[in-house]
Write a structure and sequence with these properties.
- The chain is an all-alpha fold.
- It is 78% helix and 0% strand.
- It has one domain.
- α3 packs across α9 and α6 runs antiparallel to α7.
Amino acid sequence: MLDVLSSPWALVALFVLLAYTTEAMTGFGSIVIALSLSALVLPLEVLMPVLVPLNLVLSGYLTLRYWRRVHWRLLLTGILPMMALGTLAGFVLRSDLGPGAQRLFGALVVAFSVRELWRLRRATPAVAHGPLWSRFWMLMAGLTHGLFASGGPLLVYALGGVELDKSRFRATLVLVWFSLNLLLTVGFLLNGALRAQWPHLLALVPVVLVGIVLGEALHHRVDEHRFRQVVFSVLLLAGVALLVR
């Protein structure tokens, strides 16, 4: 039996369930949640070739189901060009980070969690950026996605003030993640990282399917504000733990 049923992969499976339920509800967060929590028990270089292709199951399903709600103009003329460029740069730079990668990722998670918890507590409205600043933050979101497959925090910041309802926002974001994670998966396939982790990837697919069912069921039934408070509080603790390891 695969060691996905034993520690530390059993913990990774629990984290994946939480993370993918969250993304099925909100449209982002699966990899940053799964990676930040799982990095407490396994190294990033082991986790990323598993969690990135795994996201294709969720983002592919949601894209097929909700593609009619995608904001195509925003996606094709703004988000994808800048984020794809940043993702390629981040993927190339990953090998230069060395042992400091985990702490850098922890710092990113802490900053993101503190910002989101503050916004949730104060009910601070998102502030619109100018076109140049929006594109800059999209590029930075792509860079962090290439480094850690976690571009969601900065992309959500880059889209601050964009008027999209919850359903269109979710549909647009999941197509972004499907496109960029497909690009990263090809990179992991070419450099051999995916081949070594293939058994763990297959074993975790059923967990993602359960997360999809739960997230879809909870999307219209759970107080998203309270749910996000809990998730970001857990993320903050995980980020601090990564920094002090």
